[in-house]
Structures are given as structure tokens and as C-alpha cells.
Design brief:
Layout: H1 3-28, E1 31-37, H2 56-64, E2 66-68, E3 71-72, H3 78-87, H4 111-117, E4 121-127, E5 146-150, E6 163-168, E7 171-176, H5 183-197, E8 203-208, H6 221-224, H7 257-281, E9 288-294, H8 306-309, H9 324-327, E10 331-335, E11 341-343, E12 347-348, H10 352-359, H11 374-377, E13 389-393, E14 399-404, E15 407-411, E16 420-423, H12 439-452
Parallel strand pairs: 1-8, 1-9, 2-11, 3-12, 4-5, 4-8
Antiparallel strand pairs: 2-10, 5-6, 6-7, 9-10, 13-14, 14-15, 15-16
Helix pairs in contact: 5-7
């Protein structure tokens, strides 16, 4: 073989070696899955104290990974919490701070945009709530390659609809549905198909399920069967919900809201079990991070009785409150090289973006409020911690809350109402306002309230 052929042969080998190396590096990028439950309370899982609703799959996930006991949602209602998750911004710096259908700006850096930059295929299956197909919040404009589910969060209150929305090939369009089809399992199965289709390339999968949000009608037979007696009646005491009553007049009537609630939470658990089973079957479990959390605390809508199940685990308040029951949420992290433990580190869902960015090897954005907790996941010394966590809420005027260490401060309106102060170490249920006993802490919290808020043009404060 002459020297020219030898050089060509060696050049070809070098090229093949380089391509193989690139392909191997691509395969070694860890997959990321974010499972976001809807209105799942802090006490709704067995690993957080639930006694009446078995959740063996999530309990297993908690045992194998990290269970967080001081993890918070981005807000106490849906849309702003999802915004905080996607952007790493808290409610003092968020563009979206309430539940009106405000689209996320096209200029925002989101988790899927970071993933796309790093060679990931991105898929979302469930409830978006941050934009419609006609504006800049549409999924394909925010970094999603594939989507199936609800665009408007209010539409997701109904599990039986004429159509969902779908994103493919850079377009978002209507996806016709049979109105007798429960959308929750339909969307979940589409997410499993996404994993199968992209098992050979790094993927970001976001699963913002509609469960266990009201309306609580016709759960799957498999999920509700354990909560029914042989005669088909609920094993729980029931107060039927009648459409047009209570906090949620648009929801359909439900004769057994407690059984339906239990079934929906059980379905979340079964879905997580099927998800983990698929990861193991495809050999993806060794190279995938799974984050499980909720968008806010338990709701009291559609006939749901959170006291029946102790859904807040004794914490004060529920959805729409800035007390712990409205914002502290069950959160688990599982995956490659994650040490099994229980962590009481105060964190919030806006910390997930920087954590994922660090997992992907991406520089953490400088203009966000989140901090990466990857060191905590891997059992290393935790370098960056929050000085404080901040929330605000607009539906009932202007409420604010801060957690700094074990101190929790709440101010219920802009117009000078007295601050409430609680020590979460000795009073996690916030029963005893001790503001009068700690004027120095009150003064410190006042300063944090002032510098933590930046006006949003979409949510002006009414003075």
C-alpha cells in the first residue's frame, strides 16, 4: 500500500474515532426528567406521613434518592409557580406573578432553551399554562420540540375535552380528542412514547401532570378501585360536591370527592412507578436525573376535603396562602450518583433551573434568584446557600412572605398591616406570632421585604 493510501486510511480511522468519541460523549449526557404534580399537598404521600392513600412507588423513590423536607413551590398558585420553575426567578423578580393567562416573554431564558443549547431533545406533556399558540409563550417558542396537553391552565380543569394541543416540527396545533377519553393517562402514555423514541439521545422531559387537581370526576377504574367497597360506595365518609357551589362553581358534580381525591393521588404514584420501570427496562436509569415536586400546596376545590387526608401534614394554610401549607411541597430527587438522604435545606423550585444547568455543564445565568443544589445531591459540601427565600401574591391584594433560616415572616397587605413572625424550628405550623418578642428580627425582615421586590409591568401593585 503506497503512502498516499496509508495516509487516507489513517485519516479515515481518525475521523471515525472522532465521530465515535462525539457520539459517546453525546450518549453520556444525563437525561433530565421533571415531574410536576398539580396541587399535591405536603402530606399527600406516604413518605411525608400520609396514612390513608398508599404511595409505594414514590416512597421507594424517596428511599433511594433525596427527600426534601423544606422545599417550596415558586408561588402558592399555578402559573407563577410554573414560571419560577422554568426561569429560576422568584416572585419578587418574576414577570408572571398571578393566574391570569400571561404569556412568558420570548426573551426569557428557560430550562428547555438551556437544554436545546446543550444538544438535548425537549418534550413536555401535561399542562403548560405559560402561553398560547398565538403568542410568544407558545411551547415551540420557549424551547420545546414536542408537546401534548393543555396550553391554558384553566382549560386543564377538565379531564374530558374535545381537543388538546400538540407541538411538533416547530408548530403548535389542535390535537382532536374523544370526549370519553380521560386525558391524564392519555398524556402520560405520550410521555412514555417520547422516552422510547429518544432513548438513544439526551433528552429533557417535563411532565406537568394535571393530577390531582380538581375537577374530580371519573378517575381511572384501576386508581379508584382500592377506595371503594364491594357495593361501589366510597370507603371514606363523603359529602357530595354539587356543581355551582363552593369555591369552584364551574367544576362538575362529584358524589365521592374523597375517593376521587385518593384515586388521583394514587394515579400519580402508579404513573411514577411506570415511568421508573420504563427507565430501567431501557437501561436509562443509570444516566437519568428525576425531580418530583408540586406546583403549590393542596387545594380545597371541587369537593376536596384536605382535612380528611391531612394533606398539609399539620402545616397551616393551603393553596393561595403564604403560610407553609400553601407553599411547602413534597419534593424528591433521584438519579445517577445521588446519595440517599433526607434534606432539610430550605430550597425552592426556582433552584431547579441552575441545578439542571450545572448538570448539563452550562454556565448558571447570573440574573436569576435560584442557586444550584447539585453539590447537595452528590453529597459534597454545599457551597452556595440562600440567605433568604421570598414570595408575593396578588389575588387578595398584595401579600408577602420571607423565610430566612428558621424565621418566617408574613405581611398580609401593602397598606401597613403588622408583620407576622414565626419560628419554624419550634412552630412549623405557624400557630404563634412572636413578632412583638423579636423587634430586631422584624426590622431585618422589613429590609428584606423592601429589597426583594422589583415591579412587574404585568402585575402592578394597586396602592
Amino acid at each position: 500500500m503506497d503512502s498516499y493510501l496509508i495516509k487516507r486510511f489513517l485519516g479515515l480511522l481518525l475521523l471515525l474515532s472522532s465521530l465515535c468519541h462525539m457520539a459517546l460523549a453525546e450518549q453520556q449526557k444525563p437525561n433530565i426528567i421533571i415531574f410536576l404534580a398539580d396541587d399535591l399537598g405536603y402530606g399527600d404521600l406516604g413518605c411525608y406521613g400520609q396514612k390513608l392513600i398508599p404511595t409505594p412507588q414514590l416512597d421507594k423513590l424517596a428511599k433511594e434518592g433525596i427527600r426534601f423536607t423544606s422545599f417550596y413551590s415558586g408561588s402558592t398558585v399555578c402559573a407563577p409557580s410554573r414560571y419560577a420553575l422554568m426561569t429560576g426567578r422568584d416572585m419578587g423578580h418574576a414577570f408572571i406573578r398571578g393566574n391570569k393567562e400571561t404569556p412568558i416573554p420570548g426573551s426569557e431564558l428557560t430550562i428547555p432553551k438551556i437544554a436545546k443549547k446543550n444538544g438535548y431533545v425537549t418534550g413536555m406533556f401535561g399542562k403548560w399554562g405559560l402561553g398560547l399558540s398565538t403568542n410568544e409563550g407558545s411551547p415551540e417558542k420557549q424551547g420545546w420540540d414536542e408537546f401534548l396537553g393543555y396550553l391554558a391552565h384553566r382549560d386543564a380543569h377538565n379531564y374530558y375535552v374535545k381537543n388538546l394541543w400538540e407541538t411538533k416540527q416547530g408548530k403548535t396545533f389542535l390535537h382532536p380528542m374523544d370526549t370519553s377519553q380521560n386525558t391524564a393517562p392519555y398524556i402520560f402514555n405520550a410521555a412514555l412514547t417520547f422516552i422510547k423514541n429518544h432513548k438513544d439521545q439526551p433528552f429533557l422531559l417535563y411532565m406537568p401532570t394535571t393530577l390531582p387537581h380538581a375537577e374530580m370526576v371519573n378517575p381511572t377504574d384501576e386508581s379508584i378501585r382500592p377506595f371503594l367497597n364491594p357495593d361501589g360506595k366510597s370507603i371514606f365518609p363523603e359529602v357530595p360536591f354539587v356543581k355551582g357551589t363552593g369555591m369552584s362553581p364551574t367544576y362538575s358534580s362529584q358524589t365521592m370527592p374523597n375517593a376521587a381525591t385518593a384515586a388521583m393521588i394514587s394515579q400519580v404514584d402508579m404513573d411514577m412507578g411506570n415511568l421508573m420501570k420504563l427507565l430501567r427496562e431501557l437501561g436509562l436509569d443509570k444516566n437519568t436525573y428525576v425531580f418530583f415536586t408540586s406546583d403549590n400546596g393542596a387545594h380545597q376545590e371541587g369537593g376536596r376535603n384536605i382535612k380528611q387526608f391531612e394533606s398539609t401534614a399539620g402545616l397551616r394554610g393551603f393553596k393561595r396562602d403564604l403560610y407553609e401549607g400553601g407553599m411547602r411541597v413534597p419534593t424528591l430527587a433521584w438519579g445517577a450518583n445521588i446519595n440517599s438522604k433526607v434534606s432539610d435545606e430550605p430550597l425552592a423550585n426556582w433552584d431547579i433551573l441552575p441545578t439542571i444547568a450545572e448538570i448539563m455543564g452550562e454556565t448558571i445565568p447570573a440574573n436569576i434568584n435560584g442557586v444550584s443544589f447539585l453539590d447537595l445531591l452528590h453529597g459534597r459540601k454545599y457551597k452556595t446557600k440562600h440567605e433568604s427565600l421570598y414570595w408575593e401574591f396578588y389575588e387578595r391584594g398584595f401579600d408577602q412572605a420571607i423565610r430566612k433560616g428558621n424565621w418566617k415572616a408574613i405581611r398580609r397587605s401593602l397598606n401597613g398591616s403588622r408583620m407576622e413572625l414565626y419560628n419554624l424550628n419550634t412552630d412549623p405550623s405557624e400557630n404563634y406570632n412572636i413578632a412583638d418578642q423579636h423587634p430586631d428580627i422584624v426590622k431585618e425582615m422589613e429590609g428584606i421585604f423592601q429589597h426583594s421586590h422589583v415591579d412587574s409591568p404585568a402585575y402592578p401593585i394597586k396602592k
